[in-house]
């Protein structure tokens, strides 16, 4: 028994020594390198392995036929990965060095994978940054270097019941902060709605509804280099103060809604409006709201619409361990051409990240989509840092403390900043 | 285990040194090898690796070069103790344990004693009370979430009949955790009840009858005969329920996502979050603190509920392990 204990101790100290001996090298990391070398203009060759999640993964292989027709020597093999396990699957693939060539990457994962050295910087001149929505492009930039190309985007706008708004005396959606508050109040007082607007009081993702107001007020999550968090700014307080006022005045409930409660509340008229992304149009209609009963409007700004919103979506990145980097980047380049983006919208309904794709076809005609297109021009993304999810969770928890009156907005932003600073950017 | 005893048996029969002993030992080790290798690779290895990890600043970005991390000694543990959220989740977990274990044991004991007295429908009740144990915890949580709903939930509808405006159970910082405890008690007492029923069956009827002849009433017989005789079974029940409740997670994960205001976030939930954020070292340290708490709790329960003098105590242990 004693010998076993001794050998365990010995083993642990050896391990400890080995660990101290190695140590982390301080330099390097994401952002230290520049963009990759430009790729040639020739045709793509060889097999290109692609991972993609959700509907994108199911539709992409058939959709890529046009690419393989133009590049007869290339073959595109798509593996559909479910969103649930995607993050860990990619992280494990990077750890093992057994990656595909290209993958769809959730915008909030970019910082982490770039920092781990798993994905390559975008080659010089592959695409033109100016073609994309600025918020979407930001999501690819880690420490000043771009590590991929935006593929599709989503953003948040205001959904509201037009018939109830009509009853409350509103024929136009609210355009400013004061109007939005009045709008919610009128919906409650004149149209008998229980909650004039439903905002998320806390828990995972609350920041995605709160931050648009702070961004509209001029707040920034980090300084210009993305090195320091700047959460405790007066602008942030202004945004959070405005956000919490809806809960304090009883215009929004602080309850956590179960899936489906939001849509059914909208259908039975107990919720007058809410803020969400393009996918909610279908959900609201499924819940029994007819298309002429509701409308979508850009988020109100401090003084005029549109205010700022949140932009999310998916980026395409090429792995450092990819066998066919050249072919992979050419495939990415093809996917970000305006015609391809439009074609992919027709196929699966993803909103194109390339602005030119919105100039014709369905995207130019549909009034609902045009609202999102307009909103995307004023939409920000969170900093692409490896620790973002953790910082976001700290922000969510302080938002909840503010909306439930446990902290003043000033205290909440101070606490956010303090926690974010101790978590760090991880770069 | 089986191979090891076989080797021992093979070696003992002849007192003088058996010439084949060495060969047998080799054969024994060869036969044991598959288990030993699997155990080292998939049990001992990861356990030691995670213990080692808890002394480093291992983060997700290090996965490509896991040895290039800093050894930080006990600082993960020190940080945890100072982390206000970790303190809060520790308190939640303790509350859950202190509310849950006695309630579950009381419910299970009451059900067991009641069923034990029944002459008919014994099996029916046993199955009915045991049923929640075999249902999926996630399914149970989803259903209870509907029962607890503020508007239209079963509990508040029932309260409405007697004119009480029910609270929003799961969105109230004071009620959310007790609500989860109530569900856990409902779900878990059946398993303990079956164990207690088995314990009750081992109590000789004569003792109870003797006590009755001596003039002991129902309560006295329960208090001075049944309870002491059930002590080893109660200990076992307290230990396994305690260990289960210290690790509560799914209920909160499905029903409240740890809210409102972290009122239902547990230590396991905290660890899950930290692993999700990629703070592997920090998360590993948190799970070892929880492991330490489980060991401590088990020790305390053995001291408190176990008998004091040596010999019966050994018997207790045998009964517990068998």
Describe this structure in words.
The complex is a heterodimer of chains A (427) and B (322). In chain A, 44% of the residues lie in helices and 14% in strands. By secondary structure, chain A is an alpha/beta fold. In chain A, the strands form 3 sheets. In chain A, strands 1, 2, 3, 6, 10, 11 and 12 form a 7-stranded mixed sheet that branches. In chain A, a hairpin with a 2-residue loop joins strand 4 and strand 5 (145-146). Chain A is globular and about 65 Å long. Mean pLDDT of chain A is 87; it is low at 1-23. Chain B is mainly alpha-helical. Chain B folds into 2 domains: 2-53, no CATH class; 75-321, MetI-like fold (Orthogonal Bundle). In chain B, helix 10 packs antiparallel against helix 13. The longest helix of chain B has 34 residues, at 84-117. Mean pLDDT of chain B is 86; it is low at 1-11 and 309-322. Chains A and B meet through helix 1, helix 4 and helix 17 of A and helix 2 and helix 12 of B.
**What's the alpha carbon Rg of chain A, rounded to whole Å?**
24 Å
CATH topology of the largest domain in chain B: MetI-like fold
- The total strand number of chain A stands at 12
> Which band does the percent of strand residues of chain B land in?
under 5%
Provide the structure class of chain A.
alpha/beta
Helicity of chain B, in percent?
A: over 70%
Note the total helix count of chain A: 18
In short:
Chain A has 2 domains: 46-155 and 311-380, 3-Layer(aba) Sandwich (D-Maltodextrin-Binding Protein, domain 2), CATH 3.40.190.10; 157-310 and 384-423, D-Maltodextrin-Binding Protein, domain 2 (3-Layer(aba) Sandwich), CATH 3.40.190. In chain A, strands 1, 2, 3, 6, 10, 11 and 12 form a 7-stranded mixed sheet that branches.
Task: Please give the structural blueprint.
The complex is a heterodimer of chains A (427) and B (322).
Chain A: H1 2-22, E1 46-53, H2 54-63, H3 65-70, E2 74-81, H4 83-96, E3 102-106, H5 110-115, H6 134-138, E4 141-142, E5 145-146, E6 149-155, E7 157-161, H7 162-167, H8 177-191, H9 206-216, H10 234-248, H11 261-267, E8 273-276, H12 280-286, E9 294-297, E10 309-318, H13 325-335, H14 338-348, E11 351-352, H15 362-365, H16 367-376, E12 379-380, H17 388-403, H18 409-423
Chain B: H1 2-11, H2 21-53, H3 75-82, H4 84-117, H5 122-134, H6 137-147, H7 154-161, H8 176-201, H9 205-213, H10 218-246, H11 250-255, H12 267-277, H13 280-305, H14 310-321
Helix pairs in contact in B: 1-2, 4-8, 4-10, 5-8, 8-10, 9-10, 10-13, 10-14, 12-13
């Amino acid at each position: 028994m004693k010998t076993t204990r001794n050998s365990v101790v010995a083993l642990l100290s050896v391990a400890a020594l080995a660990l101290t001996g190695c140590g982390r090298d301080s330099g390097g990391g994401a952002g230290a390198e520049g963009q990759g070398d430009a790729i040639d203009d020739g045709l793509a060759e060889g097999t290109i392995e692609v991972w993609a999640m959700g509907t994108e993964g199911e539709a992409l292989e058939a959709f890529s036929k046009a690419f393989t027709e133009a590049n007869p020597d290339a073959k595109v093999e798509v593996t559909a990965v479910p969103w649930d396990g995607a993050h860990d699957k990619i992280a494990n693939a990077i750890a093992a060095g057994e990656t595909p060539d290209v993958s769809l990457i959730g915008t909030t994962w970019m910082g982490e994978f770039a920092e781990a050295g798993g994905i390559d910087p975008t080659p010089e001149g592959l695409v033109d940054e100016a073609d994309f929505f600025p918020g979407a492009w930001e999501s690819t930039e880690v420490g000043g270097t771009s590590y991929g190309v935006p593929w599709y985007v989503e953003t948040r706008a205001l959904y509201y019941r037009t018939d109830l708004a009509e009853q409350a005396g509103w024929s136009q959606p609210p355009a400013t902060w004061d109007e939005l508050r009045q709008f919610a109040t009128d919906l409650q007082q004149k149209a008998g709605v229980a909650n004039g607007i439903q905002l998320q009081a806390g828990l995972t993702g609350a920041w995605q509804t709160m931050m648009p107001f702070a961004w509209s007020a001029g707040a920034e999550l980090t300084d210009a280099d993305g090195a320091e968090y700047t959460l405790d700014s007066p602008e942030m307080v202004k945004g959070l103060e405005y956000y919490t006022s809806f809960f304090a005045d009883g215009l929004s409930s602080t309850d956590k809604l179960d899936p489906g409660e939001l849509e059914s509340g909208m259908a039975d008229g107990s919720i007058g409006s809410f803020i969400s992304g393009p996918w909610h149009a279908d959900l609201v209609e499924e819940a029994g709201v007819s298309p002429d009963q509701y409308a979508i409007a850009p988020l109100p700004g401090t003084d005029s619409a549109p205010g700022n919103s949140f932009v999310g979506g998916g980026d395409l990145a090429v792995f450092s361990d990819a066998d066919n980097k050249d072919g992979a980047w050419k495939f990415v380049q093809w996917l970000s051409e305006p015609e391809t983006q439009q074609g992919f919208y027709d196929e699966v309904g993803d909103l194109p990240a390339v602005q030119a794709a919105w100039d014709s076809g369905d995207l130019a005609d549909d009034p609902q989509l045009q609202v999102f297109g307009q909103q995307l021009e004023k939409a920000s993304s969170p900093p692409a840092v490896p620790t973002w999810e953790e910082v976001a969770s700290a922000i969510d928890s302080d938002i909840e403390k503010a909306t439930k009156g446990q902290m003043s907005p000033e205290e909440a932003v101070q606490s956010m900043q303090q926690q974010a600073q101790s978590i760090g950017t991880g770069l | 285990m089986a191979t090891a005893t076989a080797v021992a048996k093979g070696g003992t029969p002849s007192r003088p040194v058996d010439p084949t002993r060495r060969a047998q030992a080799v054969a024994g080790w060869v036969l044991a090898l598959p288990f030993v290798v699997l155990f080292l690779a998939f049990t001992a290895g990861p356990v030691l690796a995670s213990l080692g990890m808890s002394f480093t600043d291992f983060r997700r970005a290090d996965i490509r070069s896991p040895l290039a991390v800093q050894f930080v000694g006990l600082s993960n543990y020190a940080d945890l103790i100072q982390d206000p959220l970790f303190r809060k989740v520790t308190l939640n977990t303790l509350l859950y344990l202190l509310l849950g274990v006695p309630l579950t044991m009381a419910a299970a004991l009451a059900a067991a004693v009641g069923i034990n007295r029944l002459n008919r429908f014994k099996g029916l009740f046993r199955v009915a009370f045991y049923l929640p144990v075999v249902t999926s915890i996630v399914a149970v949580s989803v259903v209870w979430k509907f029962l607890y709903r503020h508007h239209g939930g079963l509990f508040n509808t029932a309260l409405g009949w007697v004119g009480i405006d029910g609270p929003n159970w799961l969105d109230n910082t004071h009620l959310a955790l007790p609500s989860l405890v109530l569900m856990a008690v409902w779900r878990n007492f059946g398993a303990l009840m079956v164990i207690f029923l088995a314990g009750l069956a081992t109590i000789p009827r004569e003792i109870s009858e003797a006590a009755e002849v001596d003039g002991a009433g129902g309560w006295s017989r329960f208090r001075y005969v049944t309870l002491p005789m059930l002590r080893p079974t109660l200990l076992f029940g307290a230990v396994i329920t305690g260990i289960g409740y210290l690790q509560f997670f799914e209920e909160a994960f499905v029903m409240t996502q740890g809210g409102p205001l972290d009122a239902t976030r547990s230590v396991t939930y905290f660890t899950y979050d930290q692993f999700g954020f990629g703070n592997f070292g920090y998360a590993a340290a948190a799970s070892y603190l929880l492991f330490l708490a489980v060991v401590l709790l088990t020790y305390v329960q053995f001291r408190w509920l176990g008998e004091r003098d040596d010999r019966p105590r050994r018997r207790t242990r045998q009964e517990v392990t068998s």
